[in-house]
Amino acid sequence: MDSVPFTERRNALTMNIDADTVEDAANRLHECNMEVFYGYENYKGLSDDEFLNKLDQLVILVKATLQNEKGIIVISGCGTSGRIGFLASTFFNQLCLENNLPKKYHYIIAGGNSALVTSVEATEDDPIVGAAELKHVSESFERVLFIGITCGLSAPFVGGQLEYCLDNPEKFIPVLIGFNPVSMARQIRVPKWSGDKTFYGVASRMEKTSGALILNPIVGPEPISGSSRMKSGTATKVMLDTVFYLASTNTNAKARDVIEEFKITIEKMKNETTDIANVIQQAGDCMINNGYIRYVGSSTFGIWGMIDASECVPTYNSSYDDIRGFMTNDYFKKSLNPESADSLVSPALDQSTPDDLWKTFQDLPPSSLIVFIDREYHLQKALVDKLQQKNHRIVWIKLLSTESLESNSNVQMIDFSKSITSADVTKQYLIAELILKLCLNTISTAAHILKGKVYQNIMIDVRVSNIKLFYRAIDIIKLLTGVDKETAEKCLIQSIYQTNDEINNQTIEQHITAVANNKDHIVPIALLMCLSNYSYTQAKLQIDKCPRIRDICTGNN
Ligand code: F6P
Question: Based on the number of CB atoms within 10 Å of its own CB, is 475 exposed (0-12), middle (13-18) or buried (19 or more)?
Fold first, then answer.
């Protein structure tokens, strides 16, 4: 167990979350969220003194870069890590403009802009593309503060960028954010990294390099093992917001003070457990009955909705349509890096008027669930009424809005506004974003649990769309069936290629490419092959008959 990285371990609090009541599940997820701040086992999470000192050091570095005319701050990551970097750079660039500074923050996400709202997992494995993109964005600057985020200390895309910084110390200051000790950084080699390099090698080199900074507090295992969008994503957001906020404002406060304020507010989310549990139940019922979930929001609130939705695809192999987010203003589109005109990101990024939204939503399956984020509930009232006439379920997440729900309304409201008491407007908004992230993560995670996409606390239908996920899938199969690594890998590969024959002549990269053309439940089929000694064809037939993937693991299929 000790060699298993914290970010891949199983959390003792959620071992049976798939059998919990919705209220208990909401409580368990909240307790896991608080581990980010209070710590896990003997680790102190974001309250660790040594870590907080380093965070204060980063504030000094960011301040210096903001004041340097030839300096920029580049934030990079894959999947959720890249998306959180994008949101932070978007928000704080806005603050730069308000402070009469040029935009000083730049984001990079593996897979480009489309990876902000859809799942583009394979580029995570490419250190060459990572380094080339960093080189490109930093070309016209003399000083670059590079912040690479990889929760598991694992992504070669970020590894290649850190290596590039270490090779060019006159220009770059490398900072690594992740949530494992360096000794647990990934040691697996990837085909595109020459000289047998690994992420562990780069992280160890950083440890020995003066001026390089590693920020890796231990926040403990994810509520759903490996789902780093959850606690690790929360910790990433809190760290970036704290540092950028302190560097952009005239304050004597330290990182500890800001984090404390985040902690106290997030703790208060517990007061809304009953309402959160009611929404989870509705979201679960909706998904079980093949309804869709839609989020409607504007500015960064709307973007959080799109991001939460996009992450469900690789984590639970859900369809793109199951959960989707929509924007009501063009804030997202205006925040994007320029890319070639033919690189389609998503039509949903465009500003949607109430009429556009009605055109899109009028054919939703019966009993779908539409979540209006903050002010959008009142701004879209006509749409709310039309959706209610069609008997869809409506949820309002109230954050900063000062309006109230009409009496006799049968809309389900979760009111967090009373918990957001910060006197500072910027902090109010950042806290509201964090609450929203946690609330949406809780709803979408718990809805997939109710749909049977989780066994105990394991994501049993993960999409095997990069090397990390390939090895995670093998570990899941081994753990749940007791077979050895070779058998687990053999069945996984047969399931990927949809064949009863053994495949021995393909590389791991070819396996990942083959996944892209396979819409099957790859891991569940492999699980069943191992559990019941079935051929691929027999297992596939069985899975096609069993809509609840969890039932395979409990023998109820
Ligand atoms: O590969 C998929 C994924 O696990 C995403 O879900 C996650 O957001 C991304 O990788 C990044 O992981 P990390 O931050 O550990 O590099």
Answer: middle
